[in-house]
Amino acid sequence: MTPLNGTTAVITGAGRGLGAALAITLADAGAQVILCARSEQALAQVAAIIAKRTGQTAGQVIVDLADNTSIKQAVANITAKYQHIDLLINNGAMWLEASDAPHSEDEIFGTINAAVTGSYLMTQSLLPLLKNSKRPDIVTIGSISGLPNAPLHSVSVPFYAAKHAQAALASGLQQILRDTPIRSLCVHPPYLDDVSPEDAAWEQVSERQKGEQATNRDICEAVLFAITRPRHITLSSIVVDSDSGGLFG
Ligand SMILES: NC(=O)c1ccc[n+]([C@@H]2O[C@H](COP(=O)([O-])OP(=O)(O)OC[C@H]3O[C@@H](n4cnc5c(N)ncnc54)[C@H](OP(=O)(O)O)[C@@H]3O)[C@@H](O)[C@H]2O)c1
């Protein structure tokens, strides 16, 4: 099935993990993908997988979401090559675990700037290309840590704050884009097993039982489902909780 034939999708943090799985899934579904990441080598590896599976040449754009100059260059590169984009997935965000020792300044700036400032700058700068699309969507990858009153568990306060802010960005965008065709939605994953569509484990995900950890595949399927809904509705907030008592269990 190729429900995304003819569409173009930008994915940040696409060099590994969930971002790479999303890019491969979207390419399998027919989208032309533009992979954004900090590492040229990681981009090339994901592009090679996509070429092998679909025959497409994926776009590759270097971007450090914590660096304004890098974002400007990345947006200029995308704008120079593409007239429209149909989907922007704000997936890139720095993970920062809780620690008894103080976090370094770089960790704090990196965590908040990449997820919040960088994702918003990227989104704002790509709005003109999204406005040229007939089916534009912005998908923010949040976290169950970003839900109201979520417990911290093993998450640092800067990461917790960044994920709450990302949920607010998605909601704020939905409000300011109300009178446009652009939908904004946020998917909140729980802790994930990092499986790739290239792994045998990808096929086995559908056999998992209640209480087992969620995976990248579960999030890719939620995103694909949300963006292929008829355009009169927006699945504005999707919480994917692996059911071992849920987030608050
Ligand atoms: N995995 C989970 O359990 C889980 C749970 C809830 C939410 N999430 C969210 O899902 C998304 C992907 O998570 P993941 O587990 O695949 O990755 P991750 O291990 O959390 O790594 C972060 C991702 O963001 C990118 N990134 C980090 N800092 C960046 C920066 N300054 N500029 C550009 N890209 C940057 C990384 O790309 P590089 O290759 O450039 O480092 C990587 O793709 C994130 O938003 C994460 O918060 C993940």
Automatic annotation (TrEMBL):
Keyword Transport among record annotations = no
Statement: the UniProt record of this protein carries the keyword DNA-binding: no
* CDD domains xref list: SDR_c
- SUPFAM superfamilies, A to Z: NAD(P)-binding Rossmann-fold domains
Q: Keywords in UniProt for this one? A: Oxidoreductase
Protein family (similarity comment):
Belongs to the short-chain dehydrogenases/reductases (SDR) family.
Could you identify this protein by its name?
SDR family NAD(P)-dependent oxidoreductase
Lineage here is: Bacteria, Pseudomonadati, Pseudomonadota, Alphaproteobacteria, Hyphomicrobiales
